[in-house]
Amino acid sequence: MIKLRLKRFGKKREVSYRIVAIESKARRDGRPLEELGFYNPRTNDTRLNVPAIVKRLEQGAQPSETVKSILNKAQVFDQVHAK
What we know:
This protein has helices at residues 50-58, 65-73, 76-82, and strands at 2-11, 14-23, 34-40, 45-48, 62-63. By secondary structure, it is α+β, with helices and mostly antiparallel strands.
């Protein structure tokens, strides 16, 4: 199963995350199938590749709880159900 989840990167105590599509059995920082966005919790900066995320969700990818809340704030799920 494919999941949409966060991949950690950055220095210690200055962490940022990439939102990635990855196989559910893969480790947290393993090789992703596709990078779909960026999230910085310190500045609350979020950049999303919305068309690619919508495509993955329509293919059946399951978002993690954190990614689901980020996508809800960006109103991405409205675009999935609109099609």
